[in-house]
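Sequence in, structure out.
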Amino acid sequence: MSHLTEQHPPFPTDVPTAQVTRVSLSKLLSNDKAETDALFEACKTSGLFMVALDDGAQGEELIGDASNVFRAGEKIFDLDYDEKMKYAMSWKTSNGYKSYGMTKVDNQGTPDRCEFFTLSRDAILGVSEPSPAPEVIIKNKDSFKSFMLHAHALVSLLFSHLDSHLHFTPGTISSRHRPIYPSGCQTRILKFVPQSETDRRTSFLPHTDYATMTVLFNAIGGLQILPQGKDDLEENWIFVKPEKGCAIINLGDAMAKWTNGLLKSPLHRVTYAPGAQSKEVRYSVAYFARPERDAPMKRIEGSQIIPQLADGVVEEEITASEWQAKMTGQAKSSLTLKA
């Protein structure tokens, strides 16, 4: 049974949660003005929103794909440790298996409390050479491929709405994310085990994604965001409550860079699940939509909506692959990891 559809303890009602905009996929497909306006406002204010997928066939198909990936993910994590470590994560690409404690959650060097496996979309779609992978991934390649293609179709739709609001030529953002060209796009499956009641803390470090957009599925709480403008203090972090039939969407650093900060890349982390959910194993599935390797990483010209660069600021000429390598190098030096 899929982790998305099986029964879990309810999210507690006495825990404060972020006010997250929820938009309907079917209404976005029909270009509903109120819905697309709400989407754009969320991208400008927090960079985080939810898309209700359970109101039409296209969304239900993506939910089904995510459910299949959850099932395959559980089998991956059930493998022996030595078997999983045969596919240990490469810092250069961040593809492969990351074991518990490999990265740090704070400046004191506290180890993380999650494991995950990351798959390259290029390898799954045949844009690049296949990556070494356990048999369970090879057997479920079609499921991963379907999930990646349908998740990318969703972000392409969202990109089209942002094109319109930013006064871009239609297809501007999607033209930097064509699936037939090499990119850093990935699917990641994450596992968080329950924590002892006497030793509960952050499971995965505070970070922004350097993707353009992330599509996230989970059924149990634990994801938290730091609201825009708030100091990074424990009391300011707030839970994002999962909603049945919805995908959580957050923008990443690439989108913020292209729009010179107009659209936000939210700082987020994962901690222990609240209430009775804290006794459950927590799985997540994420799709990271990243730019094509040769896409330019500088403010996109031609929009009167995007703020101009500050006087005297000249952006470096850098491609997405160079930019990602630069940021990955910074993450490696501190044993942190961005998505």
